Predict the 3D structure of the following.
Amino acid sequence: MKLLLIDGHALAFRSYFALIRSPLTNSAGENTSAEFGFLRSLLALRREQAPDAILVAFDPPGGSFRHARYPAYKAQRAATPVELRASVEQLKRFLPLAGIAFEIRPGYEADDLIASAARRAAAAGWQVRIASGDKDLCQLVDERIHLLRPASGARPARELGPAEVAEEFGVPPARIRDFLSLTGDSADNVPGVPGIGDKGSAKLLAEFPSLDALYANLAAIGAPALRRKLEAGREQAYLARELIGLVEDLPLPAPETAWRPGAPDRQAVQAWLVDRGFQSLIAEFLGESRATPLASYRCVEDAGELAALGARLAAAARFAVDTETTGLDPLAADLVGISVALAPGEASYLPVAGRCAGTGLGLADLQAALAPALASGGC
């Protein structure tokens, strides 16, 4: 069995900024780039990995215990854009509708949730794949737990197992935490030992099996300048180790019962996707070649219906109008009918010629009913 774990905030963030120069918007003018990119990636991961269970982990509002321990933690980052925060909230609303579980724990980051879920599932015999570009998560990698790192710039997407982590960092996954304790992590504003880079850290950890062993044997380091750097940076190295370490024992439900994808709420899923402007995703989320219609289209057949429609149009902030004519030449064509739409999936047809059976409406009736709405400028 396979569990797919997704770093929700990281995926939304990457999707938002990937389209920052040309953002997607829905009919209400809301930025939907993060949502669309997130959902496209989710669908791709689901196709490629075919997981038996899926969990999306989100960061909590207000930060984590790491911020309390070290106020400068991630302090260099700009505030999250309001539009991105709104998109994350939209995704939290959508995922349960689509039968996909997500988890948040106050005081703990998404990485802690991922670590706890991965260790629990792996101990139960599951294969685990983590979709994230966060190198901190490399410390979890083993024969059962792999990291699915997305493409970034010229760097291609890659699945990292133990061999790939060792190849990339020069140390095995079990030493990644100590490796980052020496180098620091600029992405999270975590200090390391000044003057100790990736190569130096890997070389030290090849000689000494852990940070503790390194500092217990500083006298064995022959280069005086390197020894002084390590001595001066001891406190920072251990602070970094504390911040980089992941919580692996958060109480979480069993993946086989809590995180197996459930049946989508078909109408709610389609309505949400239409509202966000993602009609192209409906069929995939509903598992169909074509989406189930969720629409109300009708022909206005009497004066009462026409008056009611006219009142709704006059009160609407916006609506769409289209005409049916006998030809494309506006100077020669005759009007056949008028279509008006108040919302996605809701439209009315007002016949002028070739009337619906039983209607007694004429052009003068339509003009009288629509005049207030057209005067309001909502179309």
About this structure: The CA atoms of residues 139 and 176 lie 5 Å apart. DSSP finds 16 helices and ten strands in the chain. The longest strand covers residues 335-343.
